[in-house]
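Appendix B. Raw example, untouched.
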Amino acid sequence: MKPAALVSVVILVVLGIAVFSGFGTYNSLVDSDETVIQSWADVETQYQRRSDLIPNLVRTVQGAADFESETLEAVTSARARATSINLNADDLGDPAKMEEFMAAQQSLSGALGRLLMVTENYPDLRATEGFRDLQVQLEGTENRINVARRDFNGTVADYNRAVRRFPGSIIASMTGFDRKASFEAVSGAEKAPVVEFD
């Protein structure tokens, strides 16, 4: 075989390996992206479950005739705000949209926490089976939200590593795979609350 032909064969083999490696990397990025999308759907499902429980909780609490209406209004408006912010899979690369979504969900969590704290003043309400069932469901849902968020952060971390590593970074930049935002601690969460006993 002539040297020029041998060089051509070697170049073709190297190019073929590079192309097939690129296909493999691209397919791996697609798999990672789909895993993030599925994980996000799991997070949304848990937030929707919590949102679906709130009307029943509000109706149950309204049964206590003298219950504080501002607390109920705060929960209702926080739920309306949280459900009005839609974050689809295409928005996961936008940290500002993710932050807005997290803030709305955190606001709803805070309003629910205040509602449950205020119910401590209503032993008759807390004694009802319906309220206890809703409280257990809400606590279980909050736990599922935390697990779904943790799993989502794990899949985002795996995806972001794949997008940043070589040769994934080259393929990602050529094909539009961008880094995705994950859940972060809310401002002030790093400080433990001060509990005082009078």
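End of appendix B.
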